[in-house]
Amino acid sequence: GGMSDLLRGMKAMAVHSKLLNVDLLAADETLMALDISAAGSGAADPMALANWLKDREDEYDHVLIDCPPSFTAASVAAFVCCDEVILPTRVDAFSRAGALELIGQIGSLKRYHVEPRFRALVTMVDGRTRIGGQIVDQLKQDGLDVFKTVIHNSAVVGESTYARLPLFEYAPHSRAARDYEDLMAEVIRDE
Q: Among 34, 125, 136, 160, who pairs with 132 as Cys (CB 3.0-4.6 Å)?
């Protein structure tokens, strides 16, 4: 069982990936059926992931939980157990507004004692324009910590998803791969 089973109170198990020292708690299309109302109705347990991770705290140095850009039962479970929320923010005003809205929504989870650090990650940066720097400045004015690393716009990211391969396997020497390596180094350095 994966994430959907875990949130429904069933057994879940991480699987080893092809990448060294990377395990996955898989998700599938059944996770979409669990929305925020499911968490309120008891159909999904918002504490399930936190409890599952607590039982395995000696097994992992870092846990990365990839969530959709929406407030779902899975994202609530992720927010309940996280120390930090990385907000991927595209280089546009709508994405910036969405990041700020998400911070407000996460603030509504105070009953779960959720108080993560928020950091914006500026993505889809085109080095030929100045808008990336302007977005960084605006996010800082909004009171957000912003990663020094930015993720540049790159077609290989989308291509790797269609190939169903990790970026580091599909295009290990691409600018996007280097950007993500820089991001991970910054995350670990800033602990």
A: 125
Residue type, 133: G
Minimal CA–CA distance to 40: which of 88, 116, 111?
Answer: 111
Q: Comparing C-alpha atoms, which of 4, 7, 71 is closest to residue 36?
A: 71
In contact, 46 and 77? CB cutoff 8 Å = yes
Over residues 148-165, mean pLDDT: 92
**pLDDT tens digits for range 101-138:** 888 888 888 788 888 888 999 998 887 777 777 888 88
Segment holding 75, helix H or strand E: helix 73-81
Instruction: Write down the H helix ranges in 93-174.
Output: 93-107, 131-141, 155-163, 167-170
Residue 156 has, within 13 A of its CA and on its CB side, a CA count of 18
> What is the C-alpha R_g of the chain?
17
Identify the bridge partners of residue 16 per DSSP, sorted by sequence position.
23
Backbone angles phi, psi at 146, to 5 degrees: -125, 130
> What is the C-alpha to C-alpha distance for residues 74 and 147, in angstroms, rounded to an integer?
25
Q: What is the pLDDT of residue 170?
A: 95
